[in-house]
Amino acid sequence: MSDVKEQIKNDYLSGVSPKKLSEKYDTSLNTIKSWIKRYGWSKLKKERGAPSKVEGAPSVVPVKRKRGGQPGNKNATGPPGNKHAEKFGFFSKHLPEETLSIIREMPEDPLDVLWDQIQIAYAAIIRAQKIMYVRDQEDATTTKIAESSGDTFSEKWEVQQAWDKQANFLAAQARAQKTLEGMINRYEDLLHKNWDLATEEQKARINQIKARKEAITGENENHDAIDRLDSILKEVRNNAIKQETE
Fold it and tell me: Maximum distance among all alpha carbons in the chain?
């Protein structure tokens, strides 16, 4: 591991955010995030926790501080005025550690954030197609929705005919597809506005998600195109990782 990478690792384990590390060492934020994921730094950071006291080390005399907040301090670790530290200092007061851990791992690049949302939306559409599948016109579903007892006993049942279920599915699918299409358009606009700053992986994604949308809507019956785009995106990602480690 290079000296710079080792310094970045040590700073990250001490609590410095990936964004601050990118600025400090003039290294791509995506590169730093890939190192964190590839080398398991996040897991190591959780396992390490607070540094233990070394036997024989001189005790630290606590500095007397005035009551109340210190200048520039927002109850968070980091140098005075550190907005990133202030943000997590605020979150740490109100959110559980599991939620904080998720927030720390979330991407900060708007393109990567939007890409994650697109992937989730696409997965939800595929899952809905499996859950809401209607076998044929005889595929009816009968469900008991209410029951009462007393002097008389009664039950209330709801019957969904195949055409009812299919109509509900098509309406839900249309809404989901419209949402997905809107996110794809926003991704494409944002990508071209920041084309010079975008990574090759971010650029390759747009063709992939367009092909996936066409497959969902039936605009393109050649699903082999999606497999080829998946292969291209994987190759771009592997090349990016290879360049970062050289």
Answer: 82
Q: What DSSP character marks residue 106?
A: S
- pLDDT tens, position by position, 225-245: 455 555 655 665 666 566 556
Report the distance separating Cα 103 and Cα 42, nearest Å.
12
| pLDDT given for residue 205 in this prediction | 85
Dihedral sign for Cα 10, 13, 19, 20, please. Answer: negative
Residues 145, 156 contacting (CB under 8 angstroms): yes
Instruction: Indicate left, alpha or beta for 144 from its phi (over 0: left) and psi (-120 to 50: alpha).
Output: beta
Copy the structure tokens of residue 76.
Answer: 């968070």
The model scores a pTM over 0.85: no
Which has the closest alpha carbon to 112: 205, 242, 23, 238? 205
CA dihedral 6, 8, 9, 12 (to 10 degrees): 160
